[in-house]
Amino acid sequence: MKKHLFLLTAALLAFTPAIAGELKTSKPSKAGFDGERLERIDRMIQGCIDRNEVPGAVAILIRNGKIAYHKAFGWADIASKKPLKNDSLFRIASMSKLITTVGALQIYEKGHYNMHTELGSVLPEFKEQQILESWNTEKGVFVSRPAQKKILMNQLFTHTSGIVYPVFTSKGRAGYMKSKITDAFPGGDETLEDNIKRLASVPLAHEPGEGYTYGMNMDVLGRIIEVLDGRPFAKYMRDEIFTPLDMKDTGFSIPKKKYNRMTTVYTTKNGKMELFDDDVFAERLPNNTPEWW
């Protein structure tokens, strides 16, 4: 798998049971909305852009199978003044966790594991885990102890496994970053299997089930799907979720013909809108909290 990221048009969405292919654009009144009151959305979003809180936004409001409101505001790229459009593509980052969870629960429904199945019985690299105690800066090594408990499947879904997110750690951060685990906004040609094996080689933040740590648990679930289903994770997601739901613009990579629809990623630094790049991951506030977190 070349990338772990999903791409999807961002949306402010009112829930509807209608299938995407059945949605029709409608006057607000026919969908049950007051057109004048919907103009408040315009003012709210434009206000955020004017205050440099966001570069732009796409909003959609759907009710009873009718699209009553669908507008784009601001910029897909500030420097070139490329306007945002209704079909612009965004990196949805951790929102991909929700979709991965659906895939993992499909495998669960097929009886391939239960919520108390030990992770190590599916992925042997997780059979024997260590618990982080500290990072020895002088020697450049983790100080750890053997885990007393095993990681269970339910702990992956609840972020209680102790598995870390290197870029979001403070304790032992230098060691986790040194491990070269691909996370957050990945790239390159590595496989999911290789990346998860690297993740399994570093210590857990705490004993499984004894704390909450926002970590790469859903990446592990992606690898579990590969092992238990037999298909590469990206193919499984395309076959079982994206295609059935007609999610034509969601995937792990971008076809060249869609490059022009991509948006630039920004963050706020010192009160200003700036490009989100690799340097952001290296910057820390005095309290060891990422400025953009």
Main sheet record: 4 strands, mixed
Task: Determine the number of helices (DSSP H or I, runs of at least 4 residues).
Answer: 9
Report the end-to-end length measured between terminal Cα atoms.
Answer: 26 Å
N to C succession of SSEs: EEHEEEEHHEEHHHHHEEH
The fraction of residues in strands falls at 15-25%
Summed over residues and divided by their number, the pLDDT gives a mean of 86
**Residue share in helix:** 25-40%
Number of strands: 10
From the alpha carbons, calculate the radius of gyration and give it in angstroms.
21 Å
What does this structure look like?
This protein is of the alpha+beta class and 293 residues long. The chain has nine helices and ten strands. It has helices at 35-50, 96-109, 119-122, 153-157, 173-178, 192-200, 217-229, 233-242, 278-282; strands at 7-8, 24-25, 56-63, 66-77, 82-83, 90-91, 130-136, 141-146, 266-269, 272-275. Strands 2, 3, 4 and 5 form a four-stranded mixed β-sheet that branches. A two-stranded antiparallel sheet has the order 1-6. Strands 7-8 form a two-stranded antiparallel ribbon. Residues 1-20 and 284-293 have low confidence and may be disordered.
Task: Quickly list its features.
28% helix, two-stranded antiparallel ribbon, 10 strands, alpha+beta, 293 residues, disordered C terminus
Ordered list of secondary-structure elements with their pairings:
Blueprint: E1 7-8, E2 24-25, H1 35-50, E3 56-63, E4 66-77, E5 82-83, E6 90-91, H2 96-109, H3 119-122, E7 130-136, E8 141-146, H4 153-157, H5 173-178, H6 192-200, H7 217-229, H8 233-242, E9 266-269, E10 272-275, H9 278-282
Parallel strand pairs: 2-4
Antiparallel strand pairs: 1-6, 3-4, 4-5, 7-8, 9-10
Helix pairs in contact: 2-7, 2-8
